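Sanity check

After download, print the first record. It should look like this:
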Amino acid sequence: MMTSWKEWNETQPYVTTLLTNSLKKARLSHAYLFEGSKGTGKMGIAVTLAKTLFCLHVNGVEPCHQCSDCRRIASHNHPDVRFFSPDGNSIKKEQIDLLQKEFSYRGSESKQRLYIIEHADKMTQVAANRLLKFIEEPSEQETAILLTEQMQQMLPTIISRCQTITFNPLRTPELLTLLEQENIPKSDALLVSKLTSNYEFAREIAEDELFAQARNLVLQLTEEVLERRSQVLLTIHEKWVPHLKDREQMELGLQLLLLWFRDVLLLHIGKEDAIAFSQERQMLEKYRLRFPIQQVAKQMNIILEARKHLDANVNPQLVIEQAVLKLQEG
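Expected structure tokens:
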């Protein structure tokens, strides 16, 4: 789990540089809007910033992570650092009223006060308007951090009152490192890193039993397309459809199937180090020898077309049947 500014600089260098420079110059904004996809470190950096402000043994801008203030912030239990997230499906007026009431008093232990609102885009209209007034009239040592994955759903007036900081998606090597730190096998980590740049989503995929099932089904299906064509439709009916029932699950199967043919294409152009199915190199080589590069490109287009049909609400079973029949022809 990353906690130091030095560690955050590895994955979010722009964000880290901007915030640490502001800390060094004592020029923090009164309100920040951290926006970016899930898993990019918005909450983690907000917590690190809070620790820096309250740490009893801060070294430059690096908090110690061990003092009572750092520990209480990490556990969301510091009286001058308040965390808010949706109550049910939304952040309600009462939550913002509570924040205003608590911050109307002097800080319990210090003059500095900070509040972090997760999923700020989920505020009700009334709550958003209450928060807007609060942001417009901040006290001198009061800092707001709003976190969102859907900035377009927030009030433009709130956005205009905040300094917006965009968090970039993780790069593949960074994502691989994080996944392996979670004891996810390297082969699985490599595969899911090709499906998403979102750390939390990648971890959820890798730890889901459905991922292992989908991966095995793709491997069986591709082997039969190559060597046992008479078995393909039987596998679709008896294994693929029962396990990948809804559109979201079918989409995962098609994504993995697309990665398979992408790997064959990478072997054709001499980029074997970039393949996703690293443990299936021997079977991929058989595909490369069997299908010329033009056919592989055609097969990838077949799968992309199948995904479009799936998005258009065509019956999932029909989508995969037609796609596999075309793959056999190709």
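If your output differs, re-run the checksum step. Summary of this record's structure: Residues 5-169 form a domain with the Rossmann fold fold (CATH 3.40.50.300).
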